[in-house]
Amino acid sequence: MAVLINGLACKDPKLAEANDFFFSGLHLEGNTSNAVGSMVTPVTVSQMPGLNTLGISMVRIDYAPWGINPPHTHPRASEILTVLEGHLEVGFVTSNPENRHITKVLKKGDVFVFPIGLIHYQRNVKSTNATAIAALSSQNPGVITIANSVFGCAPDIPTLFFTAALASDPSPLQYFCVADTNSQVLLNGLGCKDPKMVTASGLHITDNISNPAGSRVNPMTSTQIPGLNSPSISLVRIDYAPSGINPPHTHPRATEILTILEGSLEVGFVTSNPQNSLITKVLHKGDVFVFPIGLLSRKVGNGNAFAIAAQVVKILVLSQLRIQCLGPSLIFLAFQVDNNVVNYIQSNSRQAMASYILLSGLLALFFTAALASDPSPLQDFCVADTNNQVFLNGLACKDPKMVDANDFSSSGLHIAGNTSNPAGSKVTPMTAVQIPGLNSLGISLVRIDYAPWGINPPHTHPRATEILTVLEGSLEVGFVTSNPQNRLITKVLQKGDVFVFPIGLIHYQRNFGNGSAIAIAALSSQNPGVITIANTVFGSKPHIPSDILVKAFQVDNNVINYIQSKF
After folding, report:
1. Residue 72 marked as a ligand binder
2. Where are the alpha helices (DSSP H) in 224-368?
3. CATH topology identical between 13-139+372-529 and 212-366
4. Backbone phi, then psi, for 144, in 5-degree steps?
5. How would residue 112 be classed by pLDDT, with cut points 50, 70 and 90?
6. Is 507 one of the annotated binding-site residues?
7. Of 30, 70, 140, 430, which is most buried, counting CB atoms within 10 Å of its CB?
């Protein structure tokens, strides 16, 4: 019997490959010889299976002279569009009772936002062809073309299952869904055990901490406790030897809250670029500390006594990300060190990987991070009031009566960025800072320029999945899965190819040629954040103490000091 789920069933992770995260052909012109004079070429989960659960997709839209993309809505997605060629008149209509029409004419390099669910359109206003790239904040945004839906529906409208973009892991649909660990169906999560078969049953046992880091994690996830399936939380115990550390790491899908049962711990996390501020504190028995989702964190046993605390699931321990598989030239540019230093760190990384796998100890993890998008909007739009001094999760809203088309648009994405820097790349963002209308809509856009052989260094987005298409040149791209596999999934992209980087995972791009390269990328957050690994680990303010990095990377103090001096 076929299993019906919200989304699509998952492929066996061991069988996943780069082609699952890849699509080719977005540089090809669509056939516009139809009644409306436009063609949409989609890259959704149907075309790119790796988009499943990641909450983002992309389309190319071609317009004949005076062609239109007729009035339509996307029931599950906001849309951000940039014009590659030509001029477009665009607009959307707010909901009842205002039904206000907000419209603007865009030219090459301009960007415009269409809020989720609102009726919108585009029209080519010139006698030449036009092209646009748009990203949408759902793997399967859906489209309701108004004329077709109202006047062209069949007598029997089939049942459609529509689910909103989730702000956290999928919500439970019953009291519990105890994981059926024997089920062979691959899902985003686990299948449910028969509720009639559910029963209830030591996290008190000290773990073996005789390893180079001097710590060990005993996890309690849905693997160990099937009843955790769907409640979006788990627990771990962390044991620390005297002065032991839990090396710098991130949780791509979870916020962490930690409490000390015994001993003292120095804890800290580093904020994202460009500040890279180190937030640190010494905790004692009974103290509690929170590590925000996706941010680089670390814990250190403080003193000569043993300590017990907590954390888990899909940790990215940076010293174990098999940096050897990223290639020396990429690491050289990212960390600004010579090959001898790279080879030295890689050799120690291999030894550490062979001897132990770090996990970590007693806390609750809230999976706010399997985000398909930012929290869903509660009104048509919430244009950011940039003059408001109130601090919110997001930005305060401008008075809707004062909103105009300029709040949803920005110009200049056709202009090449300055790549004369050590990495040889430049990112030009279009987030809620540049386009106030993006506030609350859960999507943003960037242009990335690359000098010959330039890189966008290894980094993560703590709050967003990224989908990227190559406009010019060739790019080598890749991401690394979380512990313990730390598997590098990589591919060389050509013009028109598309690739997706899952939320929270370390990823990179490198120009794979002697000419310049250009890419457009969309991210499933109005403010995705960026954590450049080298800058964050070695350039935080103040520095992460060198003795922590010495233990984490298994190198001597001189190497750490040398790398820190570069940042």
Report:
1. no
2. 328-335, 339-355
3. yes
4. -120, 100
5. very high
6. yes
7. 430
- Domains of the chain: which residue ranges? 13-139+372-529, 212-366
The span from the CA of 409 to the CA of 17, in Å, is 37
**Stretch among 6-20, 149-163, 180-194, 450-464 having the lowest mean pLDDT:** 149-163
Nearest to 53 by CA among 8, 94, 22, 90: 8
* Residue 248 near residue 372 (C-beta atoms within 8 A): no
The answer to whether residues 89 and 59 touch, using CB atoms and an 8 Å cutoff, is no
As a residue count, the chain comes to 567
Q: Quote the percentage of the chain above a pLDDT of 90.
A: 18
- Rounded CA-CA distance 536/270 in Å is 7
101 labeled part of a ligand binding site: no
3-state secondary structure of 84: strand
CATH architecture of the domain with residue range 212-366: Sandwich (2.60)
Confidence at 267, pLDDT banded by 50, 70, 90: confident
In sequence order, the 6+-apart residues with CB closer than 8 A to the CB of 242 are 214, 301, 303, 304, 305, 306
**Protein fold of 13-139+372-529:** Jelly Rolls (2.60.120)
C-alpha 525/C-alpha 433 separation (Å) is 12
